[in-house]
Amino acid sequence: MKVVIVGGFGVGKTTMVGSVSEIRPLTTEETMTQAGVGVDDNSGVETKTATTVAMDFGRISITEQLVLYLFGTPGQERFWFLWNGLFEGALGAVVLVDTRRLEVSFDVIGRLEERGVPFVVAVNTFPDAPHHPVEALRTALDLPDEVPMVDCDARLRASSRDVLLTLMHYLHSLALPTA
Length: 179
What we know:
The protein is of the alpha/beta class. It contains 5 helices and 8 strands, in the order βαββββαβαβαβα.
């Protein structure tokens, strides 16, 4: 089973894949250079020194026959063309958001909705991030009530696992026949 972790630049996608993967994750983190100045918006994450330029990959074995493959996408818009291949065959996605920079999530969610990819929203709880009520965030992100939204700390394995479980439960509910 394939799941994609998406979100804007610097929201914690690489961290999430790394925290929950049973294998050492494959990452394509590269040092940020002057080439990105004026191209990439690093507002709110000015101290970030590396960025994903292709994808992150991790794995969780549920059983011998059932394996969850995790693909983290690059967050910078100039690398979004890579999303096309990463979404092929994906069951669903986790949209990781940062309340300090909620606006970087708007286009991400819009792209998933356009593609018809089911997703859940995980609010990464950065230590200095403001906390907002779920309904306020749901309204700001223009999310339908049925899309699950959960808090998480992408650095913690259990928290990232719980986000993935929320996605699996949501996908299961979508597959159930309606009466």
